[in-house]
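Moderator note: this is an archived Q&A kept for reference. The question asked for a predicted structure of one protein chain; the sequence and the answer are reproduced below.
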Amino acid sequence: MTVAGIVSVTYSSAALAAADLDGRVRVVDSRSASMAEGFVALEAARTAASGGSLDECEARARDVANRTALVATIDTFEFLRRSGRVNVLKAFAATTLNVKPVFALRRGSVEQLARPRARSRAIDRILEEARTASAKGPLHVAVVHAACPEEATQLASRCASELSPEEMHVTEFTPLMGAHTGPGLLGIAFWS
């Protein structure tokens, strides 16, 4: 299981290495990151634990990878600017206007969903995305955050009451992921 190929060369490198192992190792692009990637790994592990073959584990991982999403907002553009993902002018304009972008990483692509000017509206938009997914079946949810545990706890409480998920986690971004988004990233990884 790797992070989405569009954000890292990890998948390409792993697939290249696995090619030398005559099919004994399967590499799956999670097509997402953070706990959305984690859900793909969990489902593959659950399939293996219930006696699934390597082919069945790979098929389950690919199925869940196609159904996961990570929808989040950031608190500042500074870290995206530093990493080169947003140019200086756009970062300045967004900061001046207090824009709190809502983006989704799903099916291997990044989508901009909204540009609210208040964090509360960004969080409402994130929940709306998860609510839409819950109409397709039981929802598996993970609240993800970068150094904002109080907000994550509040969002988890809203998820539990508004979405009634089958499975719920709260997890913090690793320092490596947080280096690109900065503190204050808050979102939901989910699949149904």
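Archived answer notes: The beta strands are 69-73, 102-106, 109-114, 140-145, 167-172, 186-191.
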